[in-house]
User: What shape does this take?
Amino acid sequence: MTLAEAKKRIADLRQQVAHHAELYYRQARPEISDREYDQLERELADLEQQFPQFADADSQTRKVGDDRVQGFKEVAHRQKMLSLDNTYNEEELRAFHARLIKLLETDDLRYTVEPKIDGLAVSLTYENGEFVRAVTRGKGDKGDDVTANVATIGMLPRRLRGPAPRIVEIRGEIYMTQAEFERLNAERAAAGEELYANPRNTAAGTIKQIDPTEVAKRKLSIVLYSLGYCEPAVVRSQTELQEQIRAWGLPAVEKYWAVRGIDEAWAAIGELDQLRRTFAYGTDGAVVKLNDVEQQRAAGATDKSPRWAIAYKYKPDSARTRLKAITIQVGKTGILSPVAELEPVHLSLSTIARATLHNEEEIRRKDIRIGDLVEIERAGEVIPAVLRSFPEERPAGAREFDLFAAVGGKCPVCAGRIARVEVDTGSGVGAAWKCQNYDCRAQRAGRLGFFCSRRALAIDGLGETVAAKLVELELVKDPPDLYDVTLETLATLNLGTTEEPRVFGEKNATKLVAAREAARALPLEKWLYALSVPDVGESTARELGRRHRTFAELADSALLKAVLEKAALEEERERDGPASKKNPPKDEAEKERRKTRRVAIDGELKALGSGILLGVPSDIGPAVAASTLEFFASAPGKRLLAKLARLGIDPQGTVQAAGVFTGKTFVLTGTLPTLKREEAEQKILAAGGKVSGSVSKKTSYVLAGAEAGSKLEKARELGVSVIEEAEFLRMAGG
Assistant: This one.
């Protein structure tokens, strides 16, 4: 791999890892399995080690996955809360043991082997035996204060039983039992709401609810298994801690093994694999820990993980079944996705009859044919996927799949024209077929469901089933039409059939109407994202909302036109340079004309950069500018704006006037003397600046406080200005 190839691959991997970390830790809706994520992160770590010139101290490979979300107070852990390194095979587990032998200079190592619970990590603080606080892992040093929500967990004692330390942090996992998960989904199915994906994500989403009364409606559980800060010390080993957790009256793991050496640890991992499905919580692996606390301290930790513990991940549950057919689903963007229709098979406590095939290219790469025996997997309880076929057992009538031929060259829902397009899958760019009819019924239903989703306008109660029914009955064509559907119509909406009616009901309808009215007050960025404008994600919508006052201004945006103008100038400068090898000038006269034109282009670019485009982030690039302007100039875009105007909905942007920090990018690190991080960020944004999570040559200032870490070191390496709080406040005007 050349340096250029390595740099490009590292940048691509960082983008993928950041994308999937955001989905898993903050949004609790992963698109890929833990194993696939770990493979991406490991490849990135290997390349960063192989090409140290491209290493970044702020890389995801060197930090804990950040689960903080808006709406919660941030609290510091007294002792950092790290994550575990993962391994998937015996060889890597034995390599972990060998590293410890070398590090501790002894081969007499004793371990505990414990279940790895598939939940949300949390740290509980008890002071003089009284429960005072619950904090998520967050970014390791700080997390979200979820005390009120955790207090709703009935199995958690408010006071420790027996003698207790003055202060103790006890770590564990919040989870949801399979029974409770099925109860919730049964309720949602009856109400026509979108079903939750799996217990882990549901538990994580529940604990991050702002209202504790909503949390209390769902029965969460908790299990504790490790220690953070403790004063005075109470245990000398992991086995003593397990017994102490039980003595305090706290819920502990059902079973653990105390072993000597890696052979016994490996045997215990096998025993746990046979038992784990009988536990109340979901488990996806075994955690191997040094038993002795002094040896744990001697082994130490990296910024991300302890060196004295490792998680062995079990092979995800899989099963063999017959692929009966491949059907096509059409999503909100019009992309046609193949779905495997299977002979039902029992897997991971569920009966699976459908699984994703990702895309047509994946089907061909895996040589999957209709009629094949296939292996399906439900890794980390994400959507079941078809792993592979068994060509050696292929029946005579097995048929290759051609998506275009299967749908007769037309959308299977609306019979509209389909076209081959490139799409960003979150794991790179791939080809797909797309329905070109914006008013396709499937797209309309998908856009309506997304419009009401939690990440968009949070109009609770309108899931896939309700959205599809409203579109089917032609009550809603565009998402804003939802405001025209009366309470009475919603209450009597039949989500079932004439023979087996299932009415939405007045209670659900009243809740939905209240939520849609509350959404009127949401800012422009939320509405822009909710309306599924092409190429506009959450981050881009936020940046556009900060730079436009209304939809009317955005639809004819001078800023977006300037972005396109800049892109055209840069393209011309590259294409028609006086020394261009691809497009050389015909003669000396043309060469001189190009020189003159280049001077003019440089002047125009400079004027744009110091004028209307000053401080505009890379999120707003030419692709976003073009698709946004084209969308609002199109018939569907104009129709949406007209409907919003008729309904009196005019979302406002959070436009900031140019300020002292316009065009400046800040990175915050450490603990500031008087300002909370959120307060400092608001001052920067209010003065026209931008806040970034990583230091680069483009960073204007690093605002550093106490215990500043790797970001401060990176700033010094790059020569970036480092300022303290007092200087920052002076610059900000007080």
User: Anything to note?
Assistant: The mean pLDDT is 89.
